[in-house]
Amino acid sequence: MKKTVFIFSALIIALLSLFQLSQYAVISGDLKIEIAIAFSAIVCFFVGVYISKKNATHQPILTKKIDTHKLKELEITTREYAVLKQISEGLSNKEIGEKLFVSESTVKTHVSNLLAKLQAKRRTEALKIAKQLQII
Amino acid sequence: MKKTVFIFSALIIALLSLFQLSQYAVISGDLKIEIAIAFSAIVCFFVGVYISKKNATHQPILTKKIDTHKLKELEITTREYAVLKQISEGLSNKEIGEKLFVSESTVKTHVSNLLAKLQAKRRTEALKIAKQLQII
DNA sequence: TTAGCGCTCATACTAAAGTACCAAAACCCA
DNA sequence: TGGGTTTTGGTACTTTAGTATGAGCGCTAA
């Protein structure tokens, strides 16, 4: 954001000085003022496009924000969600248990509840649905 | 693209007519020509940003292209890849078999080979790796 | 024409995954 | 402090997933 403001300011200054330079031409009647305006407008347009692109690539637009609202809507608890994330990492129930410091039984319980809440038959299907819901 | 050209043309026309309107003010000496230019520049800048954003959201920049090169590198066959895509859809081996018109045994064979080639222990892990490799 | 590869399928396992049901701590909140 | 929810864990069982191995068929390049 700071960057944008800076570039924006520089842009205006550049334009005003550009105008000062072209003023001589305007006075002499060779260069029409419309052209000067159109030129500056075109330049600014492309600068706008450029800046927007820059910002877009810097912070990937499709950094899918996690839809916390949907998590509550589906009544997915904290622990269940933690398990879901580990599933998306390709871990087995046992591995998830080790990572979250609980038994495999507990993980199975969470997974089972998760599948019911996501209306999935398998963990792979749960992953697909979760992605569609922007949950992961 | 056509849209962009259209908007761009409309923009220039609008600016020129804007200038025509403001010309009276310029002649009367109340409104300085610098302000007119700066104003048009600012408008064009934001229009550029807006259009760029529109384009970005319309056709997602991060439409991950499938890395066919990597598929060959990993020696993943046509059929195996078809199975992989079905796995990402959350289907079971049996369901995949029905969809591809082969037996569950065949699907199992493909999955097994797939896991070996992707160096995964489970299908969920295979999904994760495949995504990292931009294969799906 | 034969060796190699891809695709198919089967059997027989072992290993995970998932279900159902129960139950006891732990936690939060009114 | 009682009550609902979450988290945890267990047993017992069914269903998928995954491995290993072998084998037949069709295509293709040497």
From TrEMBL, chains A, B:
Q: Cross-referenced InterPro entries, in alphabetical order?
A: Sig_transdc_resp-reg_C-effctor, Tscrpt_reg_LuxR_C, WH-like_DNA-bd_sf
Question: Which SMART domains does the entry link to?
Answer: HTH_LUXR
Q: Which UniProt keywords apply?
A: DNA-binding, Membrane, Transcription, Transcription regulation, Transmembrane, Transmembrane helix
Transmembrane listed as a keyword: yes
> What Gene3D superfamilies does the database record attribute to this sequence?
Winged helix-like DNA-binding domain superfamily/Winged helix DNA-binding domain
| Domain HTH luxR-type, residue spans | 69-134
Q: Which GO terms describe its molecular function?
A: DNA binding
UniProt-listed GO biological process terms: regulation of DNA-templated transcription
Transmembrane segment boundaries: 31-51
What is the protein named? Regulatory protein, luxR family
